[in-house]
Amino acid sequence: MLNAFDKAYHDLCEEVLEIGKSKDDRTHTGTISKFGHQLRFDLSKGFPLLTTKKVSFKLVATELLWFIKGDTNIKYLLQYKNNIWNEWAFEKYIKSDDYHGPDMTDFGHRAQSDENFNALYKEEMAKFKQQILEDDTFAEKYGDLGNVYGKQWRDWQDKDGNHIDQLANVIEQIKQNPNSRRHIVSAWNPAEIDTMALPPCHTMFQFYVQDGKLSCQLYQRSADIFLGVPFNIASYSLLTHLIANECGLEVGEFVHTFGDAHIYSNHMDAIETQLERDSFAAPTIKINSDKSIFDINYEDLTLENYESHPAIKAPIAV
């Protein structure tokens, strides 16, 4: 048996496995891909953190709060032992003139197939992370990922040099004019794509108020179903909770709309393992603070009654 949240995700996995087409990709890993899909989650029924594999709420929450703060440097994430953006920063460092260590070219693929190289890579990555945490100058130069999500959400710059805080503006709009159809935040800034370590996969989201409830719809242009999507579901569901709390509303639905929804070829065994599992009851989320969304910390959030199967590891495609 599966709870409604896990079932929606499992149905997506099974549909892509059944009708998806083989497709090459930027990382040359290879995928099975489907274009266009939608999931709906009723947030009044619980918090959609998958239970058929363990998903780290701490990683989800600290990344989201990093976006909300407008931060683009991995130092904040590393302070919470959140390593999900490390590879992109590390890649920038090893391509620089300041890097004098062993050859790390194509580290993402080589670490999967060569045990000796993998040990070397882990050693270099550990040194890189330590330097980010201890050396502010180094962190400023090599920890920053460019104009990624946090920059676009909180400091979008137009052609005239004006700075727009999209997230603060949309919260104010929800409070002042809840029936508006313009409650939109976009991370896709065509003028700054080349300045980003990774162009935004979750490109824009829209809020909708009905009967005192706040719903959110996300459009995701590119979706790594096994590794990324469980995080994206939880992240935008948490964002909906936080903004509803800020605006004095209840939570409604999180609607997740996909463009290219894909399973990487090296995730097939992992996803088959997950699909064999039953699920547990969905957990719930509590916000234990009256602070503004812009001041809230991870320690102000509590995930309650989360029971899951063990995590399933799979390589990230860089």
Automatic annotation (TrEMBL):
Pathway: Pyrimidine metabolism; dTTP biosynthesis
Keyword Transferase: yes
Annotated keywords: Cytoplasm, Methyltransferase, Nucleotide biosynthesis, Transferase
Keyword Methyltransferase: yes
EC number annotated for this UniProt entry: 2.1.1.45
Reactions catalysed according to its record: dUMP + (6R)-5,10-methylene-5,6,7,8-tetrahydrofolate = 7,8-dihydrofolate + dTMP
Subcellular location: Cytoplasm
Binding-site positions, dUMP: R26, R181, R182, R221, S222, A223, D224, N232, H262, I263, Y264
InterPro entries listed in its UniProt record: Thymidate_synth/dCMP_Mease (IPR045097), Thymidate_synth/dCMP_Mease_dom (IPR023451), Thymidate_synth/dCMP_Mease_sf (IPR036926), Thymidylate_synthase (IPR000398), Thymidylate_synthase_AS (IPR020940)
UniProt GO BP: dTMP biosynthetic process; dTTP biosynthetic process; methylation
Pfam families: Thymidylat_synt
Family to which this protein belongs: Belongs to the thymidylate synthase family. Bacterial-type ThyA subfamily.
Name used for this protein in its record: Thymidylate synthase
Organism: Staphylococcus kloosii
